[in-house]
Every structure is written in structure tokens, then in C-alpha cells.
Write a structure and sequence with these properties.
By secondary structure, this protein is α+β, with helices and mostly antiparallel strands. The chain has 3 helices and 4 strands. Helix content is 31%, strand content 38%.
């Protein structure tokens, strides 16, 4: 059974785009044959806080479908790469339904709290 995942990488900003693409190719090859991730290069951006003495990082977001059994080896390879400052793999949910409007819940909660205050 395959699941849809999304991974965000933050690479060292000193790496050029061809080097990042080569690393991504090696990482994604570990996911198995036939897996074609959708990759979006966000480019160099300022970090909110310093990571390993870096103020900027090269962001890449990839989405793919793979079996959960391949993730431990994939994550191990990414952790060992010195060019990756941070990464995060999450299970990408299918189109989730919009939550119920909170407006209906707020007046009921406010009414309940005002009744408690009056007592």
C-alpha cells in the first residue's frame, strides 16, 4: 500500500542548483523504481533563526507516493548528508473537508460563559 508524502528540505545555501538537483536524485532513487516525485524549488530564502551558523537556506518541496517501508532508509540517507540543514517528511492528506464554521460555536460558548458569570 502506498501513501502520499510531502518532504521539505532546507539545503546549505552555498550549494548551487545543479548540486541540489543531484542530491535530490540520489534521495528520490531510494524511494523505489517508478516513483516520480513532484519537486518545487523555492530557492534561497532567509531563515527565521540560525541553523548551524547559516542565515539562509535553499528550500525544496517534494511530493511523492511510496510504501511506508522505504521511509526509514530514505530518512537515514537525508540525515547523513551534510548539505541538508533540515528536512521534514509528513503524510500528505487527501483533500480534507473544510472545518465547520466556528462562528456558530462562538456565540454558544460566549452565552454559556456569560450565564456562569451571572450566577
Amino acid at each position: 500500500m502506498t501513501r502520499r508524502y510531502e518532504v521539505v528540505y532546507i539545503f546549505d545555501s552555498a550549494l548551487e542548483e545543479p548540486a541540489v538537483t543531484e542530491k535530490l536524485g540520489r534521495f528520490h532513487a531510494l524511494l523505489g523504481e517508478g516513483v516520480q516525485p513532484t519537486v518545487s524549488h523555492w530557492g534561497k530564502r532567509s531563515l527565521t533563526y540560525r541553523l548551524n551558523r547559516h542565515d539562509t537556506g535553499y528550500y525544496v518541496v517534494a511530493q511523492f507516493e511510496a510504501a511506508p517501508t522505504v521511509l526509514p532508509e530514505f530518512e537515514r540517507a537525508v540525515k547523513l548528508d551534510e548539505g541538508v540543514l533540515r528536512f521534514l517528511v509528513v503524510l500528505a492528506e487527501a483533500a480534507t473537508p473544510a472545518p465547520a464554521p466556528a462562528e456558530a460555536a462562538v456565540p454558544a460558548a460566549a452565552a454559556a460563559s456569560s450565564e456562569e458569570e451571572e450566577e
